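call fold(seq) -> tokens
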Amino acid sequence: MRMLRCLVIVLCAAALARAAERDPKARAAPKRDAAVLIGDLGRMLERMEGRIEDLEKKVAALAKENEALARELAQLKGAGKAPAPAPAPSEKRPSFGATVEAKGDQLAVIEVAEGSPAEQVGLKPGDVIVAVGAERTGLARRIRAATEGGKKPFALTVVREGKELTLAWAPEPPKAEEKKPRADAEGARAIRLGLLVEEVGGDAPNATKLVIGEVEDGFAGKAAGIETGDTLLGVNGKDVATLAALSEAVAPLRSGDELMLVFRKKDGRAVTATVQGSHRRNEAKLLKSAPVEAPKAEEKPKVERMVLGLVCEPAEKNEVQVVAVLKGSLADKAGILPGDIVHELGGAKIDSVDALKAAAEALPSKDSVTIVFTRDGKQESREIVIRKPEKKAEPEKKAEPEKKAEPEKKAEPEKKAEPEKKTEPEPEKKPEPPRPLLGIDVEGDGQTLKVVKVTPGGPADGKLLAGDVIAAFADKPVRTIAELKAVVDGLVPGKEVAVKVFREGKEVQVAIVPAAK
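ret:
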């Protein structure tokens, strides 16, 4: 540094001397110029010393930062100190055994030492470590903290060939002076599932699930019978729907431990498999496997539904008017006609269509009900028979005593044959009018009607589609099969009728020409 300062002083003096030679005024006043030169030179030296001090501080800070980075990289390799010459064969192996390169918050694995914990956990060159447990920042520090102190086990999440893979690892505890049996040493090592797992969207909103992307031969997943495309559901009784949950469930497991894996096959079957895991290839063993039995659904009691057969709409003064009667229904058998105003059904007051529906729902619990209505201004009532009473077995009649034979009566004189009456010809029966045909099959739940099939070549072919929800037929709203039949029975074959449906959330109106059956 002193040599640098001396060099600067010499250069500054030379520069000032050349400037003085070029300036005639400077040659004319040598004493004055010398004083100026000395002052300028002092100021220049002060500025240069300040800049040199700043540069020295920056160089020192950069050196410290480089030392810290080199120390951290060396600790990941297992050296634990700043970079040093290659270890002699007698020195111990690195504690973790992975050479990594920082890429932002992630660590790219460049080299994995043979026989090291990094190899045992399943790391491979080219892997990118993206998480330690559930944390995705400070990865080098978290790995170093676990490997140095022999702390709790943890799991690494890496990206391999574009997919995330969870690898569980447990640092080996400090070795005691006495040598432990080989079985104990191996049992302290983390178990390997050998599964490449991908976290994808689940069946429900905001839900996730773990889908198997790859199964490695010789480890617990393969022994359990897991295949590519299966979905992992649980580990040792814990639900695993995220990579973080899987890491937490697998982290405490050691080589030789039993683990229960629950997974769903691609065909929908759920399977539970108990496996004895290992960190070594081809040492995992299947202990038992069985399908998961789905809970049996409770059988709901069957409720007999009775069809009243009335299509009604609100009328004035909170009244309900019949607009159609389904043929062969209870109402039709009771003699109810379109235009009747219904007031009561089974003792319940009817002042709205909803009240009529509520009263009709109670029909299966009764044998008969009375319906009160007004027709042509006159109030009438009819009995609707829901169930016919069972006939009681008549008692056997006692055998009557034989009657004594009566004396024969005298033959009466024969009566003259009466002239035969002329039989009048029966009136010819008029043929029934043709019934309309639509060519559709529907199903309903009491609130909506959905088209399930359209007959090819029928009147509705090309007009209606399977899955359409019928809202109105012939400008009349229909919500049940009974209402639809009542409207269709009143149609005229060959006459166009408007049909309003909902298709893929949009209202669509089509025209259909019913055919004759």
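The two ends are 113 Å apart (CA to CA).
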